[in-house]
Structures are given as C-alpha cells and as structure tokens.
Amino acid sequence: MMEAGVAELDLIRKRLTNDQRVILNVIWERFRDQNDWIPRRILQQRFGKPAVHACLEQLGDSVVREFQDDGKDCYRLTFLGVLLTDQGEESEQLLARYLEYVRKRSKSDPSLEWVGSQEVEAALGLPSHRSRLLRQLIRLSHWWGGGSGFGDQEWTVGVPVDVDDLPPEPDLRGYIRGHVLTHFPPGAASSERGEPSGEFWFVSDPALQRQLRTDWHEAQGVYQVRGWKSCVILCGGVLEGMLLDALARHGAAPAESDRSDLAGLVETARGRGILSAGMPPLGFALQEFRHLIHPGRAPHRKVEVTRDEAEAALVAVRMCQRQMAAWSSARQGQQ
Q1: How distant, in Å, are the alpha carbons of 20, 122, 137, 187, 189 from that of 53?
Q2: How many domains does the chain fold into?
Q3: Do 214 and 276 belong together in one domain?
Q4: Considering the domain boundaries, does residue 191 fall inside one?
C-alpha cells in the first residue's frame, strides 16, 4: 500500500503543468517566509485572474483553497499542496526524520508529551532555517497533539496522537505519503480523466459542499489534538449533511421529526441502495452526536467519547464518502 502511495504522489507531481508548479511555489514561499498566506488580489495581480482561476480549479481544493483571514480573501495550500511544490521532497524527508525521532523518544520515554525545537535541532542537526521549515510542516500536516506553541524562533509541540501507530520501518516517507493521500485525496488526477473532483462533488448544493469540506478537515484536525468530542460532533454533522442531500435527490427526504436520527438515516440510505451493506455500524457516540452538542438532552445512557469513538466516526465518514461517490457515478452513467 505504501509503495502505491509513493508512486501516486510522484505521478501527480509529473502531471503538474509549469503554471501550476509556479503558482504553488509562490503560495508556499509566501507562507514559509512570512508566516501568512498570500492574499488573492496579490496572486491574481501577478499571474492574471483567468490564469489563477483556471489553474486552481484544475488542482482542486485537496491541494489549494480559498479562505478569509482578517477579512482578506487568501489562498492557502493543504499539506498535499506543500508536497507538490519544488520543496516537496525536501519537506517529506525532513518531516520523516522528525517523526522517526519522536517515535524513538516516545519508545524510550512512554510518558513523553512534548518536544521542543532546541532538542529537535540538536538531535537532527538542523540549522535555524530548517527548523523554521519543520515548524511549518508540523503545523500543516497536523502531526502534533495536545497543544502547541509556535514562536518565531522556538516552538514546542505535543507528541502526535498516533505516535504509537507509526510503523517500524526506518524511513517513514512512505507512511507520510499514504497518510496525505488518504486525508487529501487529489482531485487533480480525477479531473484530468474527466471525472468529478473534490471530496464532496456528489453533494448537489455548492454551499453545503463547502461547509462539509470545512467541517471534514476540521474534524481531522481536532482529532490530531485529541479533541475526541469535537471530532465526533463534526463527523456527525458531515454524515447528516451527506445523507439528507442524497435522500432528497432520491425522493426520500425524511420527515422533520426523523432528520436527527443518524442511524435511521443510514438505514434509509441502505434501503434505497445509496449505501451498501458494507457500511460499518455507527459508534454510539456518533449516533448520539446531537446530544453532545446539547448536554441537557441526555440519551438513555451516558455517552463516553473516546479515541476509539472518534476513529470510528472518521471511518464512517470516509466509507460514506466512497459509497455515495460510487452511487452518484452510477446514477450519472445511467442518465
């Protein structure tokens, strides 16, 4: 599986046009050097509005996204986007060395919770500019947990939540590639084949698509900092949005009183052929995610939100995404 991830990322890099590569480099260099993302106006003035729009539409939001920062419209790269820049391979190697170091430290000291820039610089022999680069990579990859402090010169981060799951191989670059291609599935590769792109392309409402993308990536981010409850709540909202949209298109929109029953929505979707029998059962915390938002509306038994519940919620969203995409593609082929 890791070999497939290595090959896929190399293929995506080779498919980039020269214009795409240049624009990605400009966005990344701005953030790397100035610690803020490039305003949309500046990028469009440099390359022209039509060229920027065409380039970024082809790349998809798994690579680069628009967002607002202090009222300004800006462009930002995802971690996949960073790996597609000219500094991508160097970034992979640096982050892999960091994760290998943290894995080793954690095994020798199971109580380890934090690592700081000074110890990492000494252990890896990093000059200050490479340490600053690593700081940016850790932030964007979400390989930190429990909190962080990112100063201009020094930084401290929590040990990654999945440190015990890091594979034992000496070089973790394959693990990094597999991770990033799972969490940021590239839309560019599919759009080149004329297929729909984007994680929620099958959702009919563009505004809902944008909201689901935002919530889904936030769910993955809070998981990395041990925000189990927030992760489950966000995943519940994403699942509910996908299911309600699909059922409405199928002519099976549930009654208002049934819309908050997530398990019921899943069963209805199964009955309509939108989801398959392979969809795993929802965890109890995910089924009761609305009660986590409104603690006063207590379910029949206490909801304990653990790491396992958060992982199950992430798995449920990914499975639902894949199955709904397959169902939507099949429907399009029949039309």
Answers
A1: 11, 43, 26, 15, 17
A2: 3
A3: yes
A4: no
Q: Does residue 97 sit in the same domain as residue 77? A: no
Shared-domain flag, residues 57 and 97? no
Q: How far apart are CA 12 and CA 28, in angstroms?
A: 18
Residue with tokens 């792109």: 197
Tens-digit pLDDT profile for residues 225-262: 778 899 999 999 999 999 999 898 877 666 665 566 88
pLDDT per position as a tens digit, 117-171: 999 999 999 999 999 999 999 888 877 765 566 666 788 888 887 788 889 988 8
Q: Does residue 308 sit in the same domain as residue 210?
A: yes
SS3 284: helix
Q: How far apart are CA 125 and CA 255, in angstroms?
A: 62
User: What's the predicted TM-score (pTM) here?
Assistant: 0.66
CB-based contact 33:204 (threshold 8 Å): no
Query: Domain containing 48: what range?
Result: 15-81
- CA 56 to chain CA mean position, Å: 18
Last residue of a domain, one of 81, 98, 119: 81
Q: Is residue 192 part of a domain?
A: no
Count the neighbouring beta carbons within 10 Å of the beta carbon of residue 289: 25
Closest CA to 64 of 158, 198, 174, 211: 198
Secondary structure of residue 68 in the 3-state scheme: strand
Identify the weakest region by mean pLDDT among 74-78, 107-111, 302-306: 302-306
What is the pLDDT at residue 196? Answer: 46
